[in-house]
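Shape matters. As here.
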Amino acid sequence: MPLTVHTVSHNQDAPSQEGTQGSKANGEKYVDISLRTNSVRPHLTWKNVWGELDWLNVSILTGFPILTIWGLFTLTLKLQTLYLSIWYLLFTSIGKYNKSQ
């Protein structure tokens, strides 16, 4: 099945109808509106990757696992903590058990 690309011609004198029901009536799709209104972002390269990262998310997604691994090797595990972690895992659906399988 060949890929077809649809182009939309725009009347420069017509008022913009972005996000309204009128734009859908004219056959204009969300992607067409987004491509027309958003600027082109540069390609992701090794030179600009550090500027494109959201450092709050990076610190959360890497900090907690690193802290957990550090605690696993440096602290002693108590039986109450093990029971609490298993209970938390099961009842918060992180380790959801599906009985139908």
